[in-house]
Amino acid sequence: xxxxxxxxxxxxTAGPGLTGSGTARPGATGAGTARPGATGAxxxxxxxxxxxxxTGAGTARPGVTGAxxxxxxxxxxxxxTGAGTARPGVTGAxxxxxxxxxxxxxSRSGRDRSATSSIVGVPVQAGQRIECDIVGLTxxxxxxxxxxxxxxxxxxxxxxxxxxxxxxxxxxxxxxxxMTELLERGTGGRVEPPCSLFDVCGGCQLQHLDYRExxxxxxxxxxxxxxxxxxxxxxxxxxxxxxxxxxxxxxGKPGVEMVSSGPELPSDRPAxxxxxxxxxxxxxxxxxxAQVPIGSREGGLIGGFFEMGSHDIVETDVCLIQQQExxxxxxxxxxxxxxxxxxxxxxxxxxxxxRHVVVRHARTTGQRMVVLVTNGRDIPHAQELxxxxxxxxxxxxxxxxxxxxxxxPVVFGEExxxxxxxxxxxxxxxxxxxxxxxxxxxxxxxxxxxxxxxQAVEYAALTGKETVIDAYCGIGTISLFLxxxxxxxxxxxxxxxxxxxxxxxxxxxxxxxxxxxVGPAEVVMPRWQASGVTPDxxxxxxxxxxxxPALIATMVELKPTRIVYVSxxxxxxxxxxxxxxxxxxxxxxxxPVDMFPHTGHVECVIxxxxxDT
Length: 613
Ligand SMILES: C[S@@+](CC[C@H](N)C(=O)[O-])C[C@H]1O[C@@H](n2cnc3c(N)ncnc32)[C@H](O)[C@@H]1O
Known about the structure:
Elements: E1 5-8, E2 22-23, E3 29-34, E4 41-43, E5 79-80, H1 93-100, E6 129-137, E7 142-147, E8 150-155, E9 162-170, E10 174-184, H2 198-201, H3 211-228, E11 234-235, E12 272-274, E13 289-297, E14 300-306, E15 313-315, H4 324-339, E16 354-361, E17 368-374, H5 382-392, E18 396-403, E19 415-421, E20 425-429, E21 432-436, H6 446-460, E22 467-471, H7 477-483, E23 488-493, H8 496-508, E24 514-518, H9 521-530, E25 537-540, H10 549-558, E26 562-567, H11 570-582, E27 585-593, E28 603-610
Parallel strand pairs: 8-10, 11-12, 12-27, 17-18, 22-23, 22-25, 23-24, 25-26
Antiparallel strand pairs: 1-10, 2-5, 3-4, 6-7, 6-9, 7-8, 9-10, 13-14, 13-16, 14-15, 16-17, 18-19, 20-21, 26-28, 27-28
């Protein structure tokens, strides 16, 4: 989008393309970083946690908990009524009231409405309107603005733009604001978000940025982290000196540096090559899993997404990044629950039954799974509910119940039982068949998963003679890809059901050269080391928090020729790469793969080799 000047007041109405429908907020899987002003967290791997802040990212928000992570892959989006929902920060009260109409009442709001209005030495006050230039973009899709050296994270603004913004909250180092007016366009590729609930939901943090620009930004985000936190030299174009992706400091907190200033880099090391992000041709409707929080409004059961920055549920049925089959399934389950008077969980009171509806769709087999996450074991009219779901959902193969009674943002509890059908559904990636249980991690974007795993196998550079360890192996997906090219593969994973799936997956695919173990990788790997396992290659694919330092230490001791690191969080990746570099390894290349289009989630695969090879 080109630069011209001119004042643009953002319309407060729904974006085009989806009249009458909108996007809902993702659920979330996995351990993640706490969300803004709320107790919820989202992350990319087990355990599954409830989304609270609504952006789909697991990153803590500035001014709240301080930690920066990134987002969490697993987001349940569902969709919305979308009727004329206003974009926050644009039409203000009128729009928000309309949105409120479809929200759950009585839930806690994560917004800090008593934020400090002024702080000595901070040049802006809460509530003030200011003008600022935007020089960067956080992975939550907030523009990074500067006012007299003070950092403001401005929702709705993009790099290169000059905006008017209303300051929402301030802290000593940074504050938060929302764009009220676009004063000057940048060159950053602003587009109209196709989803009418874009601003309310926040699940797709980057929908207002052209997709090609998103891909460039994701690469830049990796580059910036490798430089700042990993202290690595990075080769290649788009080196980010003038347009940094996200301000971040080495301690994982939102930093105040917005522009890569070219840190002091070691000159004796070859520069790391960071390739352009591999994107999707059609970057919509990709998610194979939805995780919908359930609540109530005026006594009726609703389900959709948590409104950005709060625990308010917005009722909705449409989400543009969700496979349509999942939307249908969620809608059917909600209808069935309403028909039978199933009570919705009230988060404030800790009462009510249905907390979440989690659904999966296996694209290659057409099988669907429903998991009812309940606050207690007894489901009144359970058989009728199962019968209605079977009647309404084509391809349904598994209906399960998971019991979660704890007051926690973690979605799943420990107890899962099958109410009807199979205890797992089956999907295929590149000719390998996988059983997927309710709580097992399975990549949510099947089209991009083939590319991600293909890159991991390529960096492993196997000849058929190698012993390989796959740490954080989930249901054995990467392990089985590797096993086709290796002598032996050892996989380790902390979730017992996932390892049961992994063993079953090896068996149903006739793959015999793999062995799986349950437990923390940092505990199991030293055990393997003691028993004489000497891996030539180690693959790690940790959750957002990265590898345990003990695991890195064991890897360094085991001295594999190559390490392949699959990461969903560039900042913890960069931290771990620094440890590996200090332990005698060299980061050779990085391949970002866009697993989560329109969100701030950045996934990449890194090829690492031992210094003396
Ligand atoms: C990002 S997922 C990757 C799974 C798998 N590689 C895949 O692509 O499907 C990370 C996995 O690590 C597991 N995990 C988390 N902490 C762990 C630990 N300390 N040791 C072993 N596995 C762990 C999670 O349960 C999850 O299955």
